[in-house]
């Protein structure tokens, strides 16, 4: 079942929570809404679900307007972070809940519950109560409960927010594998970019109630459509500057800006991994700190007459030779993304020099 959202608006008092949002989810796709807290992700999801009414705009399921349909009539399954399991019911009863509401026979309920317990790796746990399960198992029961009535659409709002990092990662794999088996059209809301990128076919980046970009994870990384996306995805240095003679000078660092008109004010976004630092006494910056982060090393330096700059290298990189606090370095910008001040549109990326 495909979903189309057309020019949605939603205000709370004076506050515009959803500001002209249009988007599409193809049938069978797993799409992530990714954005900071308060950006409107849950509001959009709740409108799609029929739990909240938009002030204007429409939601279409399989091409049919769904705005007049009650939440129950939309064939939607939910999993929320705080949508707790029924504590006084066993795992099997929890999973069967929606089927009972639908009036399915006991035999049918039993078959479906059995099937889902297997699918979710919960075989043998049907008679347990939620308190007898780990956090990860509980979230899998919640997923099974949502899937039991065979919804046309599955909506997941930060479903793994309450579990620890290792279990979260395990649950991501479950969700992805599950989706590959049942192919139910799914929207997954998260503020965690790694979670969005590792699970979804398509990521929709949301900021201040608006869609910033809707694209594949790779496209969002390589071709961020707006300054917000470039800043939000991946670690980056961001500088405000003015183009002059084909560069944007930031202290003694010259960020390549070929083709940008002199005087244009830009935000320059430099990803940590799009920079090279190497030790050079005549360099343009001084190293302040190095931080070993697992297999990577993050280097903090101060540009002469300029601000702090960070870069990141694989731990075994030859570029790290001799890099230590106090040493002088040269900086090469292998890729810069420049966004003109008022337009918010990318004007120039700089290919790596030959
Ligand atoms: P997200 O899920 O991205 O964190 P939400 O959609 O929950 O964002 O909220 C977007 C904004 O709308 C937030 O600033 C939030 O405070 C506000 N908001 C959401 N629901 C309500 C409500 N029922 N009443 C008033 N403000 C709300
Ligand atoms: Mg939310």
Report what the structure shows.
The protein is of the alpha+beta class and 354 residues long. It folds into two domains: 3-227, Rossmann fold (3-Layer(aba) Sandwich), CATH 3.40.50.300; 236-350, OB fold (Dihydrolipoamide Acetyltransferase, E2P) (Beta Barrel). The chain is built from eight helices and 21 strands. The chain has helices at residues 41-49, 91-101, 106-119, 135-147, 165-182, 193-199, 217-222, 227-232, and strands at 3-12, 15-25, 30-34, 56-61, 64-65, 76-80, 153-157, 185-190, 202-207, 210-215, 236-242, 247-250, 253-256, 265-271, 275-279, 285-293, 296-303, 308-314, 328-333, 337-340, 348-349. The strands form five sheets. It has a six-stranded mixed sheet, with helices on both faces. The chain has a five-stranded antiparallel sheet with strand order 15-19-16-17-18, with no helix packed on it. Strands 2-1-4-5 form a four-stranded antiparallel sheet, covered by helices on one side. The radius of gyration is 25 Å and the shape is elongated. The model has no long low-confidence stretch (mean pLDDT 91).
């Amino acid at each position: 079942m495909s979903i189309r959202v057309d020019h949605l608006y939603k205000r709370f008092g004076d506050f515009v929570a959803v500001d002209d949002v249009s988007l599409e989810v193809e049938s069978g796709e797993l799409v992530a809404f990714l954005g900071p807290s308060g950006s409107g992700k849950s509001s959009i999801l709740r409108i799609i679900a029929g739990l909240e009414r938009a002030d204007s705009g429409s939601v279409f399921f399989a091409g049919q307007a769904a705005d007049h349909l009650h939440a129950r009539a939309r064939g939607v399954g939910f999993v929320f972070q705080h949508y707790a399991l029924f504590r006084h019911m066993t795992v099997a009863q929890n999973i069967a809940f929606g089927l009972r509401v639908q009036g399915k026979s006991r035999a049918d309920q039993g078959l479906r519950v059995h099937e889902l317990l297997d699918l979710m790796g919960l075989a043998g746990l049907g008679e347990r109560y939620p308190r007898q399960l780990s956090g990860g198992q509980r979230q899998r029961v919640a997923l099974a409960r949502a899937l039991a009535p065979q919804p046309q659409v599955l909506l997941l709002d930060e479903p793994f927010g309450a579990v620890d990092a290792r279990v979260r990662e395990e649950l991501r794999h479950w969700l992805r594998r599950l989706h590959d088996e049942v192919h139910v059209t799914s929207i997954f809301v998260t503020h965690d970019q790694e979670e969005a990128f590792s699970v979804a076919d398509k990521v929709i980046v949301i900021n201040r109630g608006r869609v910033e970009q809707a694209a594949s994870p790779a496209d969002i990384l390589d071709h961020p459509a707006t300054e917000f996306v470039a800043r939000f995805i991946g670690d980056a240095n961001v500088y405000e500057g003015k183009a002059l003679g084909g560069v944007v000078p930031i202290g003694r660092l010259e960020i390549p800006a070929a083709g940008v008109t002199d005087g244009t004010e830009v935000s320059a976004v430099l990803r940590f991994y799009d920079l090279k630092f190497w030790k050079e006494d005549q360099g343009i910056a001084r190293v302040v700190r190095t931080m070993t982060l697992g297999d990577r090393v993050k280097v903090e330096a101060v540009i002469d007459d300029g601000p702090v700059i960070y870069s990141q290298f694989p731990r075994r990189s030859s570029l790290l030779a001799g890099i230590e606090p106090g040493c002088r370095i040269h900086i090469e910008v292998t890729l810069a993304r420049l966004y003109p001040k008022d337009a918010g549109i990318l004007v120039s990326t700089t290919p790596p020099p030959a």
